[in-house]
Amino acid sequence: MWPKHLITVADLSVGDIEDIFRQTAELKSSRGGGGSGAGTEKPLAGKTLALVFEKSSLRTRVSFDVAMRQLGGGTIYLSRQDIDLGHRESVRDVAKTLSRYVDVIALRTFRHETVLEMAKDSTVPVINALSDYTHPCQALTDLYTVREKRGTLEGVKVSFIGDGNNMARSLAMLCAKLGVGFCIASPRGYGLDNEFLDKISASVTHSPLSATTDPSEAVAGADVVYTDTWISMGQEAEAEKKRRDFRGYCVDAALVAGAKKDVLVMHCLPAHRGEEISGDVLDGPNSIVYDQAENRLHVQKAILKILLTG
Description:
Elements: H1 14-30, E1 48-53, H2 59-70, E2 74-79, H3 80-83, H4 91-101, E3 104-108, H5 112-121, E4 126-130, H6 136-150, E5 157-161, H7 166-178, E6 181-185, H8 194-203, E7 209-212, H9 215-219, E8 224-227, H10 239-245, H11 253-256, E9 264-267, H12 279-282, H13 289-309
Parallel strand pairs: 1-2, 1-3, 3-4, 5-6, 5-8, 6-7, 8-9
Helix pairs in contact: 1-13, 2-13, 4-5, 6-7, 6-13, 7-8
């Protein structure tokens, strides 16, 4: 049985994930690959999604909004200035009030504890649209996109180059669940913590999981090379130090050449060209970055449909 909320990919069984992937493919196909043609299925007619965003966004905001519209529902956008969550009004009171107005809440926030508190007090489903701990919708989109391109996830190795952030953590969790190999390369002190890695490793027996400080070692034999910004929103004060510490971790043509010839290059965007990824790689023939961006729409349609219709 599906969980009431989607807080992390750890909440999902393998069967739940397969359900998301299956419905994603069906919904994407019914919209002509994501175009603007008239679809016939409107399962969320009359439903409303509250987009509660403490952090600004392009892909997350637009993809959720369009997803609800294509499924027949609507959205209301609430920025940090609109609510001032936890300051002007408690998370508990916001959750209980919104539950009387809307059918589902997508929360994009700085602190993971805020998502947990919102879910605890909400009587409608809460979707983690990003927190400092995880980004489940993006991770689900990423592995759906890899399977779409490869036809299977069996035997796939994902190499993540960069900070052990919410995105790396989400991918590691999902790869472990689905038996996908995962390797992360980070400067010393910036990787996934040992407690997290040990916990993930102990939960599975068939998914190789490893960490290194050497990007070249990480990408050897990789089917997917993935990177993300080194400087997340809210970390601007650390920007110069991080740029120094992450020298040598740019996903450029020389690094990609050490992976498989048909390697897929991924980035969840926004990208800082010339920092974590070079422009020629981002725009190159191995890049599927914009396919990822499109698939956020279709995966989130599947998640919304499942949460609201069962």
